[in-house]
Description:
The protein is α/β, with parallel strands linked by helices. It has helices at 9-19, 25-43, 81-90, 137-148, 163-172, 200-205; strands at 4-5, 50-55, 60-65, 71-77, 95-96, 98-103, 110-116, 125-129, 132-133, 153-161, 177-183, 186-187, 193-194. Bound molecules: 1-O-pyrophosphono-5-O-phosphono-alpha-D-ribofuranose (PRP) and uracil.
Amino acid sequence: MKAIELKHPLIEHKLAILRDEKTGTKEFRELIKEIAMFLCYEAMKNVSLEKVTIKTPIKEMKTAKLNEDKYAFVPILRAGLGMLDGVITVVPNAKIGHIGMYRDEETFKPVNYFYKVPKGIEKREVFLLDPMLATGGSAIDAIDLLKENGVKKINFLCIIAAPEGIKVVEEKHPDVQIYCAHIDEKLNENKYIVPGLGDAGDRIFGTK
Length: 208
Ligand code: PRP
Ligand code: URA
């Protein structure tokens, strides 16, 4: 499946502020949350609804609702946590899992340190959350873990993606749909996204 990039002036505007090195932690977090809401909106475009009958103050009508219990959001710690607030604003009753993963600073390979997902995860459609898709190592390992646990439908939601990362995720997991707010130019020699926004985790949590 080909990666879907949000193309909208509002997204470009918000990304411009997000990327700016002068943007502080508070505004950075707010923007990650807002962009995550838009990504969620796009990623849930084709979900099926369940028929219901409701009564408005005027009359009864047949309509449809989302069965929120069929979905799970799984942020990749730490930076993915920044996107969680946004998606649960839109789908508040979805279940939430956590995958802990950090990128070794020398090898750039992901190290998994935590895995906790809701019961019955194999029956749910999963939306994996991580603002940065760089080499793709963390995304691939997180998807592997979910698939090993029986998950059949996975979407990957990120804010900024490098073409290199998209390519490897698409090769290894062609059934996973990637949604991103922007596809950037490339990775640098330290495997950071160019122009990117720097270290997403550090900017969300103010750790540097
Ligand atoms: C960042 C980011 C991704 C990963 C992307 O996390 O949030 O998880 O790097 O890189 P990759 O595509 O090359 O694997 P980081 O390792 O900095 O951990 P953190 O979220 O705890 O800061
Ligand atoms: N992780 C980040 O936080 N930023 C990058 O550019 C690459 C990986």
